[in-house]
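Support reply, case 0932

Customer input (verbatim):
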Amino acid sequence: MAQKPSIPKGTRDFLPQEVAKRNYIFNTIRRSFEVYGFSPIETPSFELSSTLLGKYGEEGDRLIFKILNSGEKVRKADLEALKEGNLARFSNSLAEKALRYDLTVPFARFVVQHQNDLSFPFKRYQIQPVWRADRPQHGRYQEFYQCDADAIGSDSLMYEVEFVQLFDEVLTNLAIPDFTVKINNRKILSGIAEVSGETDKLIAITVAIDKLDKIGIDGVVKELGEKGVSEEALEKIKPLFEIAGDTGSRLKQMKEYLGDSEIGQKGIEELEYVLRTVEELGLKRAKVEFDVTLARGLNYYTGAIFEVKANGVNMGSICGGGRYDDLTGIFGMKDMSGVGISFGADRIYDVLTELELFPETVDNRLELLFINFGEEEGRYCLDLVKKLRAEGVSCELYPSDAKMKKQMKYANDRGVKNIALVGKDEMSEGVLQVKNMDSGDQQKMTFEEVINYFTK
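Our regenerated output:
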């Protein structure tokens, strides 16, 4: 018995109508990117493992899909590591390449490699798939698209302001009714580690705090304890979870909490500038709020951190991003500050589906199907099809003179908007019978009238 076909968990097939909806999202995002002055680039779907590993933290590294070496390269396997039980080192020796985990690290590699061909500040956008060996669940896939925009080569906070505006622009254009842009600053998190006396455990503190909404306060405290954070430090960290009120109130409480932490106060200062400027410029729909627990758990963020959630929907963040001052430095290019954001197209798709927000005009329905009445009529219609296609009208001729019932079933299955009936009488009169499949209305038209009707 033949094996039943299937696809890996965490991946999906997309039917034509689903692709049309995804393209609507991509095109909406792309238009805003270009209006804001970002230029498109593309990078390979896989990179050298050395390019990716060590850039996302311990948890991120575990989620990178590695590509098994082939041919003679298999001989490079580190068998000593296997004997020693060092599975991570052994695994790395088997794979010199890996599927990209995100678009940001490959972008940093791209900037360093092509620095002599770029003008800085350089603003790029990129819409391509990424892969993560994550546990598949609602809103979380192993293969998904990211839609990124980055500005690199300037430390100006103007770009942070611009990205908040871009979140607002894109999601408003997608008609998402209620969404919140959460913002924090990595310097504030560094200040927390400093105040608690655990500066060397910044990453552990960041990763744990980022899980607050998933595992709760007790879970965060437990994880911090397991990571070696002292009881004394935990007592200093716990008051963070009690900070409440509006954004202004929370910022005031954080100022007091951070006290004499110079780096923490710098983070507050940067955050206040962004929030103040965004408020002065105004937004269309977005709510913006400071969230001290927002960490995003990625090692390369050094300044502002963003996360966007659609309110009223059971979904994680649909966008995110932040500033990374040191990312290109790991590839040998120092002092190249950057900031970027990413729109999660797949999650946005799920939100638009759940809220029924896709416009009715977003479909892949064929505008006009010519019914085939025979060889002579079919040949006549092919000439009309060619002329209509030249005018940009999507149309086709049914491939054979099958029974009308079969041709109509095809039209219904395809969701054809209109059918054209051209028999010998219509050929002699130089007209077409055009029937609207939604309303059932049918009218006789000349070919010129048909062109005007479909291109008006």
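We compared this against your earlier run and they match. Two observations from our side: The chain has 18 helices and 16 strands. The first helix runs from residue 16 to 35. Please reopen the case if you see a mismatch on your end.
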